[in-house]
Design a protein that fits this description.
By secondary structure, the chain is α/β, with parallel strands linked by helices. It has ten helices and seven strands. The structure holds S-adenosylmethionine (SAM).
């Protein structure tokens, strides 16, 4: 069964991490966010809304189609006064034309079949020369083998059917580039990026995180019994590692509205 983003039990699943500094440094190599109007679309628990709001953006709109996610984001960003929380859909945001300087869609597009409608809406709400940042995994990112840092690879080693689902729902780099071009965007950069997901002090912290399926929608496709088996498989692979730095590989596309 797929994750239900509208279920109150998943409210904090995308709120429990902190974005690493390297992430914002990479974005700022290509995008000036100082004093800008930013939309974080598919904001989940607001991890990235928060980092924009704290790094010089004038205002951040945190948008999600799930009210539960928005509640999680609001709780996560409660100290910040330059964020508002708006319910909206990726292809129908309800925002006025040419309102935003910067649009982030992080880990959103693999939940979207109609990328064309989504990027058309992105073009409508961005100002001329506005920047569109998309971050997701391509099928190649998903197919990397498991290792002591790339824990996700073990999910697919243990359950190949998960890799089939993962590859099916991910858009290729060529597809993303093509749909960007069709919708009036010019690609500025495409970056392959290893992002630290979390550092666990001991294997049992990772175990706890996996058993809760925190921020890992693909694990909602496993039964509780299968998940327990997966955790034991991963523990066996990791042996006596004193601490674990978990990293995921992503692709970041940065485009400019023409
Ligand atoms: C994998 S989470 C990513 C959350 C956040 N962007 C992050 O990177 O931590 C995907 C988010 O997109 C939201 N979402 C999925 N489909 C959506 C749609 N069509 N319109 C708006 N939000 C959507 C979900 O509710 C969820 O919060």
């Amino acid at each position: 069964m797929s994750i239900d983003f509208h279920d109150q039990r998943n409210q904090t699943t995308y709120a429990s991490r902190t974005a690493e500094e390297k992430w914002m440094q990479t974005i700022q190599q290509f995008v000036d966010i100082q004093g800008k109007q930013v939309l974080d679309l598919g904001c989940g628990g607001g991890i990235y809304s928060k980092v924009f709001a704290m790094s010089g953006a004038a205002h951040v709109t945190a948008m999600d189609f799930s009210l539960e996610m928005l509640k999680g984001a609001q709780a996560n960003c409660k100290e910040l006064s330059n964020i508002d929380y708006v319910q909206g859909n990726a292809w129908d945001t309800g925002l006025v034309d040419e309102q935003m300087d910067v649009l982030l869609e992080r880990a959103l597009i693999h939940h979207i079949d109609d990328l064309d409608a989504c990027f058309q809406e992105a073009n409508r709400i961005l100002k001329s020369e506005g920047r569109f940042i998309i971050q997701d995994r391509t099928p190649e990112d998903c197919s990397l083998p498991g290792s002591e840092t790339h824990i996700r690879g073990y999910f697919f080693e243990k359950y190949p059917r998960l890799l089939d689902k993962e590859i099916n729902r991910r858009h290729s780099s060529e597809q993303v580039q093509h749909v960007l071009q069709d919708n009036g965007f010019e690609l500025i950069a495409e970056v392959s990026f290893w992002e630290t997901r979390r550092v666990y002090a001991a294997v049992n912290e990772l175990e706890e995180d996996l058993l809760k399926r925190t921020g890992r929608s693909i694990l909602h496709d496993l039964s509780d019994e299968e998940l327990v088996e997966l955790v034991s498989y991963i523990k066996n692979k990791l042996g006596d590692s004193p601490s674990i730095k978990e990293e995921d590989r992503w692709t970041i596309w940065i485009a400019k509205k023409k």
